[in-house]
Amino acid sequence: MADPMRIRAQASGDKATVRVLMSHEMESGQRKDANGKIVPAWFIQEVTALHNEKTVMTAEWGPAVAKNPFLQFAIKGAKAGDKVTILWKDNKGDSRKDEATVS
Q1: Which range of residues forms the domain containing residue 85?
Q2: What's the number of CA atoms in the CB half-sphere (13 Å) around residue 51?
Q3: Phi and psi for 21 in degrees, rounded to 5?
Q4: Is the pTM of this model over 0.85?
Q5: Which residue in 1, 39, 41, 84 has the fewest CB atoms around it within 10 Å?
Q6: Distance, CA of 87 to CA of 59 (rounded, Å)
Q7: How confident is the model at residue 45 (pLDDT cuts 50, 70, 90)?
């Protein structure tokens, strides 16, 4: 399983800004190794964000997303103490789920 995501969720007024740093190698499938062999594609395909167990965002990614991707979005109606959950799944079947509390 991949390293934990770094999630920061800060409330401001009637919304919360969520920042997520995901740890993932994100290979495009076009790079060659030292022996000249193509490195197989390995990337996050689906990202889902939940606010208090309710889906607020989904994204479909591909091989063009950079290594260790950063994601930022806002959740309208979130307040301090609410729970934010981020899930991702990659093209090899690996997945990760991490949570944070809105401050």
Answers
A1: 6-101
A2: 21
A3: -115, 115
A4: yes
A5: 1
A6: 11
A7: very high
Assign 41 a pLDDT band (cuts: 50, 70, 90): very high
Q: Residue 18: give its domain's CATH number.
A: 2.60.40.10
Give the Cα separation of 22 and 69 in Å (integer): 5
- Position 3 scores a pLDDT of 84
pLDDT confidence of residue 91: 95
Q: Convert 49-67 to b/e letters by CB count within 10 Å (16 or more is b).
A: bbbeeeebeeeebeeebee
| Structural domain includes residue 83 | yes
Q: Is 37 left (phi over 0), alpha (psi -120 to 50) or beta?
A: beta
Q: Is the pLDDT of residue 47 over 60?
A: yes
∠ CA 24-50-42, rounded to 5°: 20
Place of tokens 């991949």: 2
